[in-house]
Amino acid sequence: MNRSSSNWEKKCFQCGLCCHEKVIVGKDVIYNLDAYCEYYDPKTHQCTIYLERLERNARCRRVTRFKAMFASYLPDTCAYVQWARLHHIRFAPRRHIRYARGNLGASDDADAPASLNSL
Q1: Which residues, other chains included, contact 3 with Cβ-Cβ below 8 Å and sequence gap of 6+?
Q2: How many domains does one find in the chain?
Q3: The domain containing residue 64 runs over which residues?
């Protein structure tokens, strides 16, 4: 990893939201709190293999500058999104974050862990 990539990676708050299955419905992004990557620790809300995640987990994707600019599934609390907004290059539509347990058809913010509600 080069220096530029390393500095970019250090921006991440490691909130764990990227580890959850998500679906976009209209203006909402619904995160399923019961469906997450096998390397996600629900107690700490963090990836247990964060530094090696891209090599060890084929489903894990790097959040690039392009994604920070255009990926509408990234929440406003994401460090990469905040960086893009700071540089006036965030072009993705704003979406409401919703949380679900089990069935993605029924979202309920009250089910979100306190640590995620504060994001």
Answers
A1: none
A2: 1
A3: 3-117
